[in-house]
Design brief:
Blueprint lengths: L2 H13 L47 H4 L4 H17 L7 E6 L6 H13 L5 E6 L7 H5 L7 H5 L5 H4 L1 E2 L5 E4 L8 H5 L2 H13 L3 E6 L8 H6 L4 E7 L5 H10 L5 E7 L18 E2 L2
Parallel strand pairs: 1-5, 1-6, 2-4, 2-5, 6-7
Antiparallel strand pairs: 3-4, 7-8
Helix pairs in contact: 3-4
């Protein structure tokens, strides 16, 4: 049988749905795996636990929750992107302290909105800890009770895993400040606090741990915490903290890894009334 006849016979068999004859058929080679790398998502979030009741804060300051597509929400996304770039790489520097020079510069609001922005992504889980024992505010902004919290853990009266509060807001969990402490400076400077922070960093190595802390110039706790975390985010409010305040605070944090500065409550354009009421958060290297 000629090659042409064999080819015609094979075509007839194929049209009739019958396998081609095996006479003189060359053996088939094994399937060669594709060299194209398999594309998988970096991280697939687990389904939300139906038993977790989502908290619904009423605070108007949580822009990334209430109005994520506002100009301010966009600024927080820029801040988030800069933070992720600075802290991820060969080593995930996952513990970040948010502080300021003096009171009322917006450090707690910055910590909250940044945490919410991070937690609303698929790639990041976030644990926000209220480390300001003198003026705790995270629980107030989120509308939750300040029962056992971080202070109780440092005092050895509670375990970290027992005081974590899932919020149902993206992948955000919170630890409130907890009980009132008469001597927070001594507590933060203790060896126990250092060991707990190290344990938390390694236990929750796959998530961001963000600390809200007291102002640097008024209290000493932030100076201690700044040396225990991977990086510090420094908040400056326009027309509130003086240049002297900022310089003294940065000098007090010398030796800490400064991730950047958030310039808060500034106007984009003082002649444009459209933007005169929102805060713009930007980052610049220290």
């Amino acid at each position: 049988m000629s090659r042409i006849e064999k080819a015609m016979e094979r075509a007839v068999h194929l049209r009739q749905g019958v396998g081609a004859p095996t006479v003189n058929q060359a053996p088939t080679s094994p399937e060669v795996p594709s060299r194209e790398p398999e594309r998988r998502p970096l991280h697939t979030p687990p389904p939300v636990d139906a038993t977790i009741e989502k908290i619904v804060p009423s605070s108007p300051f949580l822009d990334n929750l209430n109005n994520p597509y506002s100009p301010l929400g966009e600024e927080f996304r820029k801040l988030k992107a800069a933070l992720v770039k600075l802290t991820t790489g060969d080593v995930f520097n996952n513990s970040v302290l948010v502080t300021s020079s003096v009171q009322n510069e917006g450090k707690s609001i910055t910590a909250l909105n940044l945490a919410i922005s991070l937690a609303q992504e698929y790639d990041h889980t976030v644990l926000l800890i209220d480390g300001d024992f003198r003026r705790p505010s995270v629980h107030s902004y989120l509308g939750i009770e300040n029962k056992q919290g971080f202070a109780d853990c440092l005092l050895g009266e509670a375990e970290i895993g027992k005081v974590i509060i899932p919020t149902g807001i993206g992948r955000l969990s919170v630890i409130t400040a907890g009980r009132a402490v008469p001597n927070p400076v001594e507590l933060f400077a203790s060896q126990k606090t250092e060991s707990i922070l190290v344990e938390m960093k390694h236990r929750y190595h796959d998530r961001f741990i963000i600390f809200d802390s007291p102002p640097v110039l008024l209290f000493a706790e932030s100076r201690t915490l700044g040396h225990l975390v991977d990086g510090v985010l420094f908040v400056v409010k326009e027309q509130l903290a003086s240049q002297k305040n900022v310089k003294e605070a940065l000098e007090a944090l010398k030796g800490c890894r400064m991730l950047g500065m958030v310039y808060n409550d500034t106007l984009v354009d003082r002649h444009d009334q459209k933007y005169s009421s929102y805060q713009r958060y930007t980052r610049s290297d220290s």
